[in-house]
Every structure is written in C-alpha cells, then in structure tokens.
Amino acid sequence: MPDKSEPARLDDFLLGLHGADPFAEVSDASEAHRVEHASTLAGGEQECGAYPSSALKMRLLAATGRATGAKRVLEIGGGLGYSALWFAEIVGEGGRVETIDRFAEHIEAIRRYAERFGMGDRITALAGEADDVLPTLDGAYDIVHDDGWFGAQPSYYDRLAGLLRPGGLLVLSNWFLLEHAVTGQSPVDWSEVLGPTWAEDVKSYARRLAADERYDVSFVQNPAVALAYRRPDA
Ligand SMILES: C[S@@+](CC[C@H](N)C(=O)[O-])C[C@H]1O[C@@H](n2cnc3c(N)ncnc32)[C@H](O)[C@@H]1O
Ligand SMILES: [Zn+2]
User: Fold this and answer.
1) CB within 10 Å: which end of the chain, N or C, has fewer?
2) How far apart are CA 62 and CA 60, in angstroms?
3) Number of H helices, E strands in the chain
4) Residue 230 half-sphere exposure, CB side, CA atoms within 13 Å?
C-alpha cells in the first residue's frame, strides 16, 4: 500500500515545482488555530471553519486574477487571511481586498497578518455575518470569492451577483463536496455536520448555479473550485 493517496502525491509534486508558498505561515497558523478555537466552540473545528485554501487553488486564481487585471476583490470567509493575502498580491499596488468573517478572533488575525506582510493598506477585514455585511457594500468587484458557503446554497446567493461587475468572476470554493455527494464516497460523514439531506443540497446548488443565466459556470475538480463568469449582458 502506498503511504499517501495518489492525489496527495501529485499535489506535493506540483507544489514542489513552485518553490516556497509565500504565505505558508498563515496556512500553518490556521491549522493550529482551528484546534485551539474548537475547544471553545460547541461545534468544534467545523464551527470555527478556518480551513485555509490550498496553495494550488490560489495559484490558479492568481493566474486568473492577474490575466483579467482584477483590482477589487470581495471575499466571504476570511479565516485567518491566507487567501486574502494571495488576493492582495494578485491585485497589486492600488488594489483592494475586502474580506468578511463572523469571528472576532479571525478578524484580529487577518489584520495582524495583513500588517506583517505589508498588505495593511490593501486588505480590509469586515466583522460580521455575510448576511449583515453584504448589504452595506457597494460593487462593483472584479472578483467575489465565496469561501463561506458550505453544504447548501447560501442565503446571500442573490446578493453576490449585484456586487460583481458585469464581466467579473464569482469564485466558489469548497466544491470538493460535490465529488463526495455524487460518488457517495467521502472520508467524512457529512450528514453529522450538514444534516441528512446534505448530498442532495450540494447537488441542488450545483444545478442552480449551472442554470443561473447571469453566469457561465465551470466546476474544476482539482483544485476543487467553481468559476462563474458574470455575463455582461445578463
Ligand atoms: C474555509 S474558511 C476561509 C478560509 C480562508 N478563505 C483561507 O483561504 O484561509 C471559512 C471562514 O468563513 C467564515 N464564515 C463562514 N460563513 C460565514 C458567514 N455566513 N458570514 C461570515 N463569515 C462566515 C468562517 O468563520 C471561517 O473563518
Ligand atoms: Zn477559528
């Protein structure tokens, strides 16, 4: 038996091609933080939710964001700021990244890491529930990254299209759940976290996105992410 799954070996090889992850410290800190934060939360690590994005996903988004000249990014689900730092580098000098998170501990960490990496003038951490914060924002963002949804269409789904500029990109993380839902094979029993209808809920959201005439959607398998281009004419 190999000691690592084939996809994990491939990820390791690909990551090794690119040298050090500039924000690895924040990714590592997110993993450690979750364990500590979980001890104070009834819902444990899932309630904290600070699972950092994969470096491979951020490299894909870096290429996409730079090629499209993105200057303004909105993120739902800041965690400790790992993906926000990548976006801050992608938008470059004069660009802006706003990232929302519900936990004060996460907001404090995002601000601290933004300063540490010299991105304090590019990253704004917004505290609160996405449902409460999104109505206070004005578009138009070049990229909206939803890393907050998990397991079902989020309540703020329709608000996202209004914040995204026509021709902009809605990026939706956490679509690894779709493979688990469709194949019935999952390393985790998601029904314990998301409830008994989770697989149908995830598939319903995929169908809803694909049928939404405002977008042209691609579901990427690895790294698992959905890219929804906001049609200029819809
Ligand atoms: C997957 S983590 C984000 C990871 C981060 N983007 C990164 O790459 O490091 C999800 C985060 O979203 C936050 N979150 C989830 N749903 C939210 C909501 N509706 N409003 C505000 N924050 C939310 C959680 O507190 C958690 O920190
Ligand atoms: Zn936390």
Assistant:
1) N
2) 5
3) 11, 7
4) 20
Task: Say if CB 127 and CB 169 are below 8 A apart.
Answer: no
What would the two tokens of residue 146 be?
A: 């939803």
Tell how far the Cα of 67 is from the centroid of ligand 2, in angstroms: 33
CATH fold of the domain at 52-230: Rossmann fold (3.40.50)
Q: If you take atom 10 of ligand 1, which residue's CA is the nearest one?
A: 77
pTM over 0.90: yes
Tokens encoding 109 = 């960490």
Q: Report d(CA 95, CA 217) in Å as an integer.
A: 25
Judged on CB neighbours under 10 Å (0-12, 13-18, 19+), 230 is buried
For ligand 1, say whether the CB of 53 is within 6 Å of any of its atoms: yes
Q: How far is CA 200 from the centre of its chain?
A: 22
Any atom of ligand 1 within 6 Å of the Cβ of 129: yes
pLDDT digits (tens, 9 = 90+) for 214-229: 999 999 999 999 999 9
72's enclosing H/E stretch is: strand 72-76
Domain boundaries, given as residue ranges, for the chain: 52-230
Chain mean pLDDT for the chain: 95
